[in-house]
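RESIDUES AND SHAPES:
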Amino acid sequence: MNLRHLKFFVELAHTEHMEKAAENLNISQPSLSYAIDNIEKELGVPLFEKDGRNIRLTNYGKIYLKYVQKCLNELDLGANYISELVDVKRGHINLGFTYTLGQDLIPRLVSGFKEQKFNNEVKFSFKQDTTEHLIDSLLNDELDLVFSSKPKQKNEQLIIHHLVDQEMKIAVPLTNALASKNSVYLSELKPYPFIMYSDKSGLRPRINEIFDTTNFHPKFEIEAIEDHTIIGFVHWGFGVAIVPNLPQLSNDAVKLLNIKNKITNHQLYIITKSSHFLAPATNRFQNYAKQYCQKNYLAKNRLI
């Protein structure tokens, strides 16, 4: 068994067709059959079985494919790492962030990073989702960095760094009597139904803390995950909501009010997986984000 034969096995497992797999690999069918026979003989089990004119994976083959694919992926990561060490200007960063952060902070950080020397050729892939789903992707090695709320459950595999604080606001319809004010106590919202972040949102625990701290427990009219969905329902008069400060929000959508109650702000974090390899470009971007937020926000007690 060798690495080349394992790659043949993966291709045949994906196509489940000898002729097509051999064509994709640019080898002859006898060469492909020889490689698969060798692997099966070494393992002592059949990996494929006939299915009419085609073939299909056996249960043994399905199990083996998972391990072979993982092994090949790890080898590819190693090859990519060496390549990036040779050319420090290149790199690819898989970046995940929550919905709110896509309005300003993430585009600001990525833009500023790529303007620096040696970073203009670094490429990014973006994933926007809830904190819970982003952490799952991080733990599955699908993401390199996550910018989000603090995960609900502790996990020793995660490295969590406090990045910046986010101001919480009250969103009310423009037609609401409270829209004439600039700030309110939560108790003033008692007559109105609430549009609430769902349990899947990283903001939900923070808002629950605000309710518990102020002993304010409103009636929930609607629950949603994404910021603009909540703003949409507020705009159309379905209720009011506690939302993070949304810098790109149009002034004719809703009125954002300050909260008079003494509450702590919403903390945001940069999160990595302890066992996940971070390429040089990823490390540079992580350090840039930390330094930028420390200098422009935390050191000045500024909120986003």
User: Anything to note?
Assistant: The chain has nine helices and 13 strands. The chain has three domains: 3-85, 87-163+268-298, 168-264. Residues 168-264 form a domain with the D-Maltodextrin-Binding Protein; domain 2 fold (CATH 3.40.190.10). The radius of gyration is 26 Å.
